[in-house]
Amino acid sequence: MLDCLPNSIDPLEYADKRRRIVGSVPLNEMSRVRDMVLNEKGEAKVDLEFRKEGRRAVVSGWVEADLELECQCCLEPLDWPVRSKVHLGIVSTIDEGNLLPEPLEPLLLDETGMIDPADIVADELVLAIPPIPQHPQCALPKTETDAESRENPFAVLAQLKNSRQ
Ligand SMILES: [Zn+2]
């Protein structure tokens, strides 16, 4: 197992010193991710390098995890491997974030100036999870809709009968 990440770091200081974080985060320690996966005992691997690009402090690297989602169709597990590239520009204001050149995404610091690297990991994983996870075969048009349209005429007939009584 890899080392656990530090909980709180100063990303600007890390960028000045060109520090790198390599480690892992248990999925169940990320509240936003924990509720979206079935394998909360799993972990995400992360490799982040803090450095300067010109005067700008950036974080780049990747986040990787083998997630197990619940198919919203058959409710069976759905393997969802994630390998996301991270390329963030560290900013203190939203305006500054809007000025970042592509493909940098903003990493907005709050007034403490500190971040929890696990938040970067959680952000990437949440982004990689589809809003409605489904197996490819489950996402195909289903017979259920056929059944519904077959049922509906009867429901309409029943209503007509009732209204005539
Ligand atoms: Zn399914």
UniProtKB/TrEMBL annotation:
Pfam families: YceD. Keywords: Ribosome biogenesis. The keyword Nuclease does not apply. Plays a role in synthesis, processing and/or stability of 23S rRNA. Belongs to the DUF177 domain family. This is Large ribosomal RNA subunit accumulation protein YceD.
